[in-house]
Write a structure and sequence with these properties.
13 helices, single chain, globular, alpha/beta, seven-stranded mixed beta sheet
């Protein structure tokens, strides 16, 4: 329903509603700060540990800063907490898409994607994270991922020149291969469902046509400063409007794919990335289950 409303609603109404929510959220966070209720790094470390994040983990993080509650010193505090929990041998990944709308609209208006300079549109935590020393960003025009850790380059290097951004060579695919975890902090599959798309790229002749027919040639300024032309597919907005991502949650719960905890005030889902993909592939082959048909093709 969320995607359908987004598809049909005029952009000025969506922007008005978003701005209204931002103002209300800022007021609430200010009250928490003034009341001395700010979360500290130590508290976040304790909560992340309770959530099952451990030393050596590779963790893909989707997070809404405002849903967590007021954090002392802002995004850097939760980033430092994540680093402390996974340790120097662990990895932190964050999606850093430069586009908050439809991929089709984005690429049609794109002059060049600059890996080093184009900001993330996926929230303050991801934007602070991608600019930190030691963090590398994948060279995907539509779905770049930033990564920190000893083998961060391995997670991101396969993304360049992939025709679709969720392939086995993408950070999303490699996270599943590495047995990593996915944290949804204050968000759900409905507004942070990138890992669901790994199924679409993993299945030959996927029965839904999720990509727009046209293949786009776009410019990317790579991390080394060189300019390259790459080909990319983008999602078809008409198909995207049919997504019912959160209706997959009961299946994932039944199969033991995730647990639900709290990080600050935010309801948080902790997913096993490999098990998530394995369950999706099996459910697809058995019943045709996808985010577009979460109860099967004969529902």
């Amino acid at each position: 329903m969320r995607n359908f409303i987004r598809f049909i609603a005029p952009s000025f109404l969506l922007n008005f509603y978003r701005n209204y929510k931002k103002v209300a959220t800022r007021k609430q966070l200010l009250k928490q700060e003034q009341a001395g209720q700010s979360l500290t790094e130590e508290q976040l470390i304790e909560q992340l540990t309770y959530a099952g994040i451990q030393k050596n983990d590779a963790v893909l993080v989707h997070a809404s800063l405002s849903k967590i509650g007021h954090i002392k010193d802002g995004p850097i505090t939760i980033i430092n907490a994540l680093k402390a929990v996974v340790g120097e041998t662990g990895h932190i990944l964050m999606p850093t898409s430069p586009n908050a709308g439809y991929q089709l609209d984005y690429v049609r208006n794109l002059s060049v994607f600059d890996v080093n300079e184009t900001p993330s549109k996926l929230g303050a935590i991801s934007e602070v994270f991608r600019k930190l020393p030691g963090v590398v960003r994948s060279e995907s025009v539509t779905e770049p991922v930033a990564c920190w850790g000893p083998t961060a380059q391995w997670f991101v290097e396969g993304h360049f020149q992939e025709l679709t951004p969720y392939s086995a060579q993408s950070p999303f695919g490699r996270l599943a291969a590495a047995g990593g975890k996915i944290l949804y902090i204050g968000v759900t599959l409905a507004n942070a469902g990138t890992s669901l798309h790994v199924l679409e790229d993993a299945i030959t002749d996927f029965y839904e046509t999720v990509y727009f027919p046209e293949i786009f040639e776009v410019s990317i300024k790579r991390a080394d400063g060189t300019i390259a032309l790459v080909l990319t597919k983008v999602h078809d907005p008409a198909q995207s409007a049919k997504r019912r991502c959160d209706e997959l949650l009961p299946l994932f719960k039944e199969k033991g794919v995730y647990q639900e905890v709290k990080i600050g005030q935010a309801t948080t889902l902790v997913f096993d990335a490999k098990k998530m993909l394995d369950v999706m592939v099996a459910a697809y082959h058995e019943k045709g289950i996808t985010m577009y048909s979460p109860h099967g093709v004969n529902e």
